[in-house]
Amino acid sequence: MVYIGRMRDGSDKHLVEFVESVQPPIPRQSKWVIIVSSQFGCPIGCLMCDAGRKFSGNLTADEILAQIDYLVTKYYPSGAVPVPKFKIQFARMGEPALNPAVLDVLEQLPKRYKAEGLMPCVATVAPQGSDEFFERLIDIKNRLYSGDRFQLQFSINTTDPAKRQELMPHPKWTLAQIAQYGRRFHRPGDRKMTLNFAVAEGYPVDADIIRQHFSPEQFLIKITPLNPTRQVASNKLETYIQPNSIGQNNQLVSRFKKLGYDTILSIGEQEENQIGSNCGEFVSVLQDKSALTAPM
Question: Which residues contact 209 (CB under 8 A, 6 or more apart)?
């Protein structure tokens, strides 16, 4: 279920999306995922993401928490969430590492909700200039989310440096820099960090290059199709991972597994594509409709 929140002065530039998700057949009482936005749009401008069409700045910590509060109080008005796996992902609209308020929210979550199953997840492209964010993230993880209670995901998408810049046109860490940080971030007993590949035709993924940098003891691999967003269509991108092509998909998965990586082939519900609920789609549709109906 996708929700649209208008955060400020009634302007459509301050719209955000936030999501609650379950994993059938697992009921919400056993696993519940909330996915929140950290920015109004996104400055990264990834070719496959509708959230990057426009950017209007950072959300405050209170605005991020308001998304979580809305969904928590919908089911658990007391703030006690008795769900064994309660994941809060900073992965909808925006690049969380460009908003220090995300760190303030991470500091507050364990005090704000009584939730033994709480596990935050930060998904990032590792933008340059965010060193202070990532240093503080290590401290917060070690103090508040030690062991298997925090998930860090890096969006890699391709191992070709030029193609990676083309796909995600924003200054960001190299693979070597991400690996170096990961070695400092990960402690024994921590959840493995995720290297995410939304694989597009013409954007190669070389498992041997990944193995040169990343230890299978600290990193796992997640492979997904490209979602059929408006930007994917506009930029004429085609997904390499086909939901119904077992052979082709398994070939890429097996290459990583042979190198020792835990490897996840993550293909979502096709209903999401049918209703157009991928990241940034609903907000961009509303913003475009608003522009068309605005008085001249």
Answer: 159, 175
